[in-house]
Structure formats: structure tokens, C-alpha cells
């Protein structure tokens, strides 16, 4: 068997359909993957935040603001980084608002979602960094699930490859590179990112428990991990993108993400030496069963939860945790 035949035999097929019709309603699998990711992230974040002492399902109040702003941010980022799709004499300007036709960017979703989460935390009294740390593993898992939508849509694949796990793409395809013959296989960048993100979820859960990462440090680790992977996957993708100084816009965004993530991690490590006293802002605490209010420090103390290893060393020398 030739190497070409072996590659085709072992290649990854793409789905034949990307949507189903229920009468007049068309349901796109891409949308279902995104929605599944949102549900999973919400449920897991609720479980993690409640375990810290937050009111059950307060995450819903935050999500009501964060999710819409994340979608808006994702669309704006896509339009700004792909102006040729929407601006020009032969372009339809109003296509900017037809988001159901496709075109969202995860880095824009992170910016919009962060703004929405900050507003939601101000509304509910939750500390922003407490929410961000609780969200981090679930968000990365949601991004892994969302990438299966790209598989259903046969989009955002990488360079041609003869590796056994090359991705089959239907021919003709609107994104098919000119000059490549039918039957060419491509790097399955969606799968690479799924694997990287799932690995990252395991790293975040382990690191959070092992080192008691709080005050946004777990979120900083998430941002650095995710963005580092995107630098690689974006570098081998062949879909149209604006290029600045030889790099795609999303590569620059990913580099920025790594820098911001590391900055959050190390700055917060330097600023806050102890554990968070509560997931709530001062004076906004929610009294849960098994919790008492400290009159001396005016901070929430969950007596049912053991202190982290990081917290125990600080509490041995000070009765008031650094805020």
C-alpha cells in the first residue's frame, strides 16, 4: 500500500451534514456545539463557585450579561480583523449584523465576556477574580466542545499534510486553496485545539488544587495556556486573514493573550500572598449554612472548607488576609 493510499485510509472524514431541518426551522450543529459549551461551562462554574461559598446559581445572573457581550465582542473582533469581507464597493455592509451566517472570534468573545463578567460581578457582589478562577476550567472545556462546530462546517483547517490523521474536506469547498488537487488532506486544527484544551483542563484542575491558585492566578494560567496553543494552530491555518508584519491577526492576539495571562499570574501572586477570604466583595457576603461572619476582619469565613496549603501558611502569621 502506497503512503498516499495509507493516508487516505487512515484519514479523518468530515461530516456530510452541518445542520438539520425541523419544518421551517434549521438547526446548525455549530450552534449546538457552542450552546453545549456554554451549558457545560455554566454548570461547572456554578459547582466550583458554590463550593467556595457563593450563592447557588448566582453564576446565572453573571452569565445573563457576560454571554451576550461575549457574542457581540466575538462578532466585532471578527469584522475588524476581516474588513475585506464586509467593506468595499461589492460588499454587503448589512452582512455585519447577520451573525447566523458565521463569523465570530474567540479572542473577541474573551474581551466582551470579561467586560460582561465584570459588570455581572459588580451587580451580584461576587469578586471578579473569584468568578474568573471558577470559570477557567469550564471555559477551556467549552472552547474544546465549540471546535467540533468547525469540524461540522468543514472550516478553519490547516495546511496540506500526508500524515495519517489528515482531515478530509469535501471538494469543491468555498475555502479550498487554489491549485490543490481533489483528495488533498489537511491538518485537523480543530482536533489539535480540542486535545490541547482538554489537556489544559487537566492542568488547570491539578494546579488549582495543588497550589491553591486564587486571586485570578488560575485564570491567568488559563489565558497563557490557551493562547500558547493558538499561536501554533493559527500559524498553520490557511483560511483568509489579515496579516501584519508577517503574522496573522489571531497570532498577534494569541501572543498578547500569553503576555496578559502571565502578567495576571505574576502580578496577582505578588499583590495577594494569602487566600481569598470570600468569593464576595466586602459587605456583599451571602450567608450560607456552615459559614460564620468574622467581626474582627469583616470577612466571610467558610468553616466547612479546609484552608488551602497556601492559605494555611499565611494564616499562621496573620489573622487578616491580604485583600
TrEMBL record:
The keyword Nucleus does not apply. Its main location: membrane. PROSITE patterns: LGT. PANTHER family: PHOSPHATIDYLGLYCEROL--PROLIPOPROTEIN DIACYLGLYCERYL TRANSFERASE (PTHR30589:SF0), PROLIPOPROTEIN DIACYLGLYCERYL TRANSFERASE (PTHR30589). It is found in: Cell membrane. It comes from Microbacterium marinum. Catalyzes the transfer of the diacylglyceryl group from phosphatidylglycerol to the sulfhydryl group of the N-terminal cysteine of a prolipoprotein, the first step in the formation of mature lipoproteins. Pathway: Protein modification; lipoprotein biosynthesis (diacylglyceryl transfer). A 1,2-diacyl-sn-glycero-3-phospho-(1'-sn-glycerol) binds at residue 147. Its EC number is 2.5.1.145. One of its GO terms (molecular function) is phosphatidylglycerol-prolipoprotein diacylglyceryl transferase activity. Residues 306-323 have a biased composition (Polar residues). GO terms for cellular component: plasma membrane. Belongs to the Lgt family. InterPro entries: Lgt. This is Phosphatidylglycerol--prolipoprotein diacylglyceryl transferase. The keyword Transcription regulation does not apply. GO terms for biological process: lipoprotein biosynthetic process. The chain crosses the membrane at residues 27-45, 57-77, 97-121, 128-146, 190-208, 215-233, 245-267. It is a multi-pass membrane protein. Keywords: Cell membrane, Lipoprotein, Membrane, Transferase, Transmembrane, Transmembrane helix. Residues 278-323 are annotated as: Disordered.
Amino acid at each position: 500500500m502506497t503512503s498516499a493510499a495509507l493516508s487516505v485510509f487512515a484519514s479523518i472524514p468530515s461530516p456530510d451534514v452541518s445542520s438539520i431541518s425541523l419544518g421551517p426551522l434549521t438547526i446548525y450543529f455549530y450552534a449546538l456545539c457552542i450552546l453545549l459549551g456554554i451549558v457545560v461551562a455554566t454548570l461547572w462554574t456554578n459547582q466550583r463557585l458554590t463550593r467556595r461559598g457563593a450563592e447557588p446559581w448566582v453564576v446565572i445572573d453573571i452569565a445573563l450579561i457576560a454571554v451576550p457581550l461575549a457574542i457581540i465582542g466575538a462578532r466585532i473582533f471578527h469584522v475588524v480583523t476581516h474588513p475585506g469581507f464586509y467593506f468595499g464597493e461589492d460588499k454587503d455592509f448589512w452582512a455585519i449584523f447577520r451573525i447566523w451566517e458565521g463569523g465570530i472570534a474567540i479572542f473577541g468573545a474573551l474581551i466582551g465576556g470579561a467586560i460582561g463578567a465584570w459588570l455581572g460581578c459588580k451587580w451580584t457582589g461576587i469578586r471578579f477574580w473569584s468568578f474568573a478562577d471558577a470559570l477557567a476550567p469550564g471555559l477551556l472545556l467549552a472552547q474544546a466542545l465549540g471546535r467540533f462546530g468547525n469540524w461540522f462546517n468543514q472550516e478553519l483547517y490547516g495546511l496540506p499534510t500526508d500524515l495519517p490523521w489528515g482531515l478530509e474536506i469535501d471538494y469543491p469547498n468555498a475555502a479550498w486553496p487554489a491549485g490543490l488537487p481533489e483528495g488533498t488532506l489537511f491538518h485537523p486544527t480543530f482536533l489539535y485545539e480540542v486535545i490541547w484544551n482538554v489537556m489544559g483542563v487537566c492542568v488547570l484542575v491539578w494546579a488549582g488544587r495543588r497550589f491553591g491558585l486564587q486571586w485570578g492566578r488560575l485564570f491567568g494560567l488559563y489565558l497563557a495556556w490557551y493562547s500558547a496553543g493558538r499561536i501554533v494552530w493559527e500559524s498553520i491555518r490557511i483560511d483568509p486573514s489579515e496579516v501584519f508584519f508577517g503574522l496573522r491577526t489571531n497570532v498577534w492576539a494569541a501572543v498578547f493573550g500569553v503576555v496578559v495571562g502571565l502578567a495576571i499570574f505574576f502580578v496577582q501572586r505578588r499583590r495577594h500572598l494569602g487566600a481569598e477570604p470570600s468569593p464576595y466583595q466586602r459587605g456583599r457576603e451571602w450567608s450560607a449554612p456552615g459559614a460564620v461572619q468574622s467581626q474582627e476582619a469583616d470577612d466571610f469565613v467558610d468553616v466547612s472548607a479546609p484552608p488551602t496549603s497556601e492559605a494555611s501558611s499565611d494564616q499562621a502569621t496573620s489573622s487578616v488576609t491580604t485583600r
